Amino acid sequence: MCVKSDKPHEACGIFGIYSYKGDNLAKDIYFGLYALQHRGQESAGIAVSDFKEIQCHKGMGLCNQVFNEDNLSKLHGNLAMGHVRYSTTGSSTIENAQPIIVDSKFGPIAVAHNGNLINSEDLRDELKEKGAIFFGTTDTEVMAHLIAKSDKSTLMDALIDALKRINGAFSTLIMTTDKLIAFKDPNGIRPLCIGKLENSYVVSSESCGLDILGAQFVREVSNGEIVVFDQEGMRSRTWATGSREALCIFEFIYFARPDSIIRNRTLYDTRVTMGKYLAKEHPVEADIVMPVPESGVPAAIGFSQESKIPYGEGLIKNRYVGRTFIQPSQEIRNLGVRIKLNPIQDAVRGKKVVIIDDSIVRGTTSRQIVKLIKDAGAREVHMRISSPKILNPCFYGIDTATRAELIGANLSLEGICKYMDAESLGYLSLRNLTKSIALPERSLCMACFNDDYPVKIPEKMQSLKLFFK
User: Fold this and answer.
1) Torsion (CA) 358, 11, 368, 311 in degrees, nearest 10
2) Which of 47, 68, 223, 270 could link 110 by a cystine bridge, Cβ 3.0 to 4.6 Å?
3) Residues that are catalytic
4) All structural domains of the chain
């Protein structure tokens, strides 16, 4: 059972190290994955190479459930990579835990992927006809077999051959016995950055993964770039150029940790700015501004600063709620959001409360939160959201809902407000969202808001996504 929030969910986080000294990298990878745990809580895995063979350990659950001193001490090597997963393509099973390892004429290849391929099913059918055996249902395994089954004579040529056949979002790490390779799709939909330690290169989905090891941020991996780390050092090449840059806007709104840096700006500052614009767009008379923890905190601080309404905490989050294999009783299940959040009655009783959250997907959790605050004695509850209405599903590695399930696609602003039983509701406009991020609108993927998908979606996929999850 997973105590699931009404939020968009990211596919995963990836982390890799190539070291020129020392062989105890498994623990370093573990701590890197620990810093990226917010990107995926369903499974975790680490693969290492000692230049002769690749060893791997992976399992279901959080990093601290999968790894311990014993299994980490058995993983030795000078290069290593790891993965934390939230499933979007492929079910939540051990067969789909990553890294995925396949044999090839180039030797064993380990692959860990963040994103989603939109043509994976057609490629899977083709690969099966060529004799590929699949153990899971992920698009990452499709990518691995494309490389392994290539008729090209070198690994780099086989990789580029595979990349030219896949469509969608992919920030990916590949490891052979003697190389660590990082690459991104031509549009750069998912983030990936490079750091440097004294004797190592580090690759991470977010800069917070570099920080935990004390690695110095070097740069982001460019769109359509392949970066190779081996005994010769670091070198790169561009394999493709996209029609436009399209970094996922939800990295700024919700996914990335607030202490991470993307495009030379700390996400915390960006989210505070979103809150300030939200206060300008949707002013309200109230006694307290409070966030939905923890993702709503920076925007709530910005809203408070701009509106001069005092900031306070009115909801306490149980930080240890995540994936659990214990089924709750029906009585506990009926408590819904109370499993994760509990109101501070003295903070809200008799007050006009502004609740700040980063997004609304289905609306079920927001509705329960409003009820929680009112049951705790609040006189009025006003909802403010630091992003626009989500109108469209994502095909690039975010588990949003279908259009039929998206409350923003089916109800007016007044209808959503009434459904939640709030006194008022306001969303941040797309214009002020992009002003907060301080990047050109065309450099961001905002398809969930404006239906402008940077990579063309197959028609059969669109029709399926409309009705089914």
Assistant:
1) -30
2) 47
3) 12
4) 12-242 (3.60.20.10), 265-440 (3.40.50.2020)
